[in-house]
Design a protein that fits this description.
The protein is mainly α. It folds into four domains: about 5-45 and about 55-100, Zinc/RING finger domain, C3HC4 (zinc finger) (Herpes Virus-1, 2-Layer Sandwich), CATH 3.30.40.10; about 105-140, Classic Zinc Finger (Double Stranded RNA Binding Domain, 2-Layer Sandwich); about 145-305; about 310-510, Serine Threonine Protein Phosphatase 5, Tetratricopeptide repeat (Alpha Horseshoe), CATH 1.25.40. It is about 65% helix and about 5% strand. The protein has helices spanning about 5-15, 35-45, 75-100, 125-130, 145-200, 210-250, 255-260, 260-270, 290-305, 315-325, 330-345, 350-365, 370-385, 395-405, 410, 415-435, 440-460, 465-485, 490-510, and strands at about 25-30, 35, 60, 65-70, 75, 115-120, 125, 140. The protein has a three-stranded antiparallel sheet. Strands 7-6-8 form a three-stranded antiparallel sheet. A two-stranded antiparallel sheet has the order 3-4. Strand 3 and strand 4 form a beta hairpin. Helix 5 (about 145-200) packs parallel to helix 8 (about 260-270), helix 17 packs parallel to helix 19 and helix 18 (about 465-485) runs antiparallel to helix 19 (about 490-510).
Length: about 500
């Protein structure tokens, strides 16, 4: 069952990037992003061309800078339905909170109003409790008199916990930065070592063991850094929970402020930030290449230079995908040159399979590569004509996608890492669906694939699965609606209802 944070995550997905509020009358553009209709029309401004040319007037997406035309605006009814469900549940939750705040605590023993506070016992009592022998000789005061002082103590406790939370967040951010820095350092070291071995690999085969040593060192240090990140994340969550508890108490009535107030203060003062062990980011693995190799390498470089297609395949593909993400418009010429280089490298079944695996891993694991990756795969499917016993690039790549699709129900029930990997595959499939523009029987088959992915995600409605389903609907909702409406089918409506039900159950648990 989804936790209470699911609605918050989906709410973030339903927030307009222009006005930073929940979208009103959401519309989608050709790149898949959605915005409020009024915000997007205001962003585009009044039409500056005759009526006949308005639909072809081109703009850049406020988020990804991809080009879109005024005529490509499509209402996203599915996203609008989700937003309406969120707003309805938020209103019910606010009304319930108001009713709770209006209720005043009363003595369970005597049924009288708890308007006194016993300093000795640290408890709220009524006037009859004050006369009871159990409180004889105790110092008591009116709730209205002592409430402000204890409220200040609670607020001071919140401030101290907030400082600890900020320190924890700072250390966590520093650790995240260390992880990125460590990855960059080890990757730079990897490329340096690979460059040393590239032209004289056989001559330096014995020294290649340093790559394995470096990998082992990298993984060992990453494990320590991730353990540190996880511990700081857990402490951050505990501090946030404690702060929310005290803030809710401070916002309540005086009786709620004083209910077990000394215990709350004692527990907050006992909280300490445990700083995990610091991790060194100095790379220990070094490769001492013989001087003879440097002499030979200098002579080789005097006759020929390094060319781009001499890079390892995974670096070559990574650099090209990264290059495509920096281009806001068409990049047909760059893809043509990329495909031409691949034709010289992909000449065997093994090379074709390696190319497919490298592209798949990068376009599904790196979010910014999904859109350009879908465009690239579409281009290579039509223009990379090398055919092996396994088939063309298109056939081998689709076979890889089918393999992942068959394992969808196991993936959504796996651990967090397995689900994250599967979510990358799901969102890439959405981008691929938009870019291929498949029609006829193949189009219906691809639509069935998206619906199968949504069914799998909703079969295990944990937080990240529901957020992924919402992202996929936001990306492909208008296109799916057009196809389902044209066929008179209600599959999409069924999926929307399932997501609404999960959101409602999630918010009910929260209340």
């Amino acid at each position: 069952m989804a936790s209470a944070t699911t609605s918050k995550k989906i709410q973030e997905e339903a927030t307009c990037a222009i006005c930073l509020h929940l979208m009103a009358e959401p519309v989608s553009i050709s790149c898949g992003h959605s915005y409020c209709q009024a915000c997007l029309l205001g962003f585009m401004g009044p039409a500056s061309s005759p009526q006949s040319q308005q639909d072809t007037e081109t703009f850049s997406c406020p988020q990804c800078r991809a080009p879109f035309q005024r005529g490509s605006l499509r209402p996203n009814k599915q996203l609008g339905s989700l937003i309406a469900a969120l707003q309805e549940q938020e209103q019910e939750e606010e009304q319930e909170q108001e009713r709770e705040q209006e209720q005043e605590l009363s003595c369970q023993e005597h049924g009288e109003r708890l308007h006194l506070f016993c300093e000795d016992e640290g408890q709220l009592i009524c006037w009859r409790c004050e006369r009871d022998p159990r409180h004889k000789g105790h110092a008591t005061a009116l709730v209205e008199d002592v409430g402000p002082a204890y409220r200040e103590k609670l607020q001071e406790a919140v401030r101290k916990l907030r400082q600890l939370e900020e320190e924890c967040a700072s250390q966590k951010a520093f650790t995240v930065k260390q992880i990125a820095e460590w990855n960059e350092k080890t990757e730079a070291q990897r490329q340096k070592i690979q460059a040393d071995f590239q032209n004289l690999h056989s001559f330096l085969r014995e020294e290649e063991r340093y790559l394995q040593i470096l990998e082992s060192e990298k993984e060992h240090t990453l494990r320590r850094l991730r353990d540190r990140e996880a511990k700081l994340g857990q402490q951050s969550w505990e501090l946030e929970s404690r702060i929310l508890e005290l803030e809710e108490r401070c916002q309540g009535s005086a009786q709620k402020v004083l209910q077990d107030v000394k215990g709350a203060l004692s527990r907050s003062q006992a909280v300490r930030l445990e700083t995990p062990e610091a991790v060194s980011l100095d790379v220990q693995t070094q490769c001492e290449v013989p001087e003879l190799y440097f002499d030979l390498r200098k002579r080789l470089r005097s006759h020929q230079g390094l060319c781009e297609d001499g890079l390892p395949l995974f670096i070559f593909v990574w650099d090209f995908l990264n290059h495509l993400t920096e281009l806001p418009g068409s990049c047909e010429t760059d893809m043509e040159q990329f495909a031409e280089t691949l034709r010289g490298r992909v000449t065997t079944d093994e090379a074709l399979q390696e190319l497919v695996d490298v592209i798949y891993e990068q376009v599904t694991s790196v979010p910014k590569f999904r859109c350009v990756g879908a465009c690239l795969c579409n281009y290579l499917s039509r223009h990379l004509t090398f055919s092996s016993q396994r088939g063309t690039f298109r056939r081998v790549f689709l076979q890889r996608l089918k393999t992942e699709y068959r394992l969808r129900y196991q993936a959504v029930k796996g651990d967090e890492a397995a689900r994250t990997q599967f979510h990358g595959f799901v969102l890439f499939e959405g981008e691929l669906y938009l870019r291929l523009k498949i029609e006829g029987e193949n189009g219906r088959a691809h639509t069935a694939v998206l619906q199968g992915l949504l069914d799998a995600l909703l079969s295990n409605p944990v937080d990240d699965n529901l957020v992924c389903a919402a992202k996929l609907l936001e990306l492909t909702g208008p296109a799916l609606e057009d196809l389902c409406s044209g066929q008179g089918r209600t599959d999409l409506g069924r999926i929307i209802r399932r997501i609404k039900n999960n959101i409602q159950r999630c918010l009910a648990v929260q209340m």
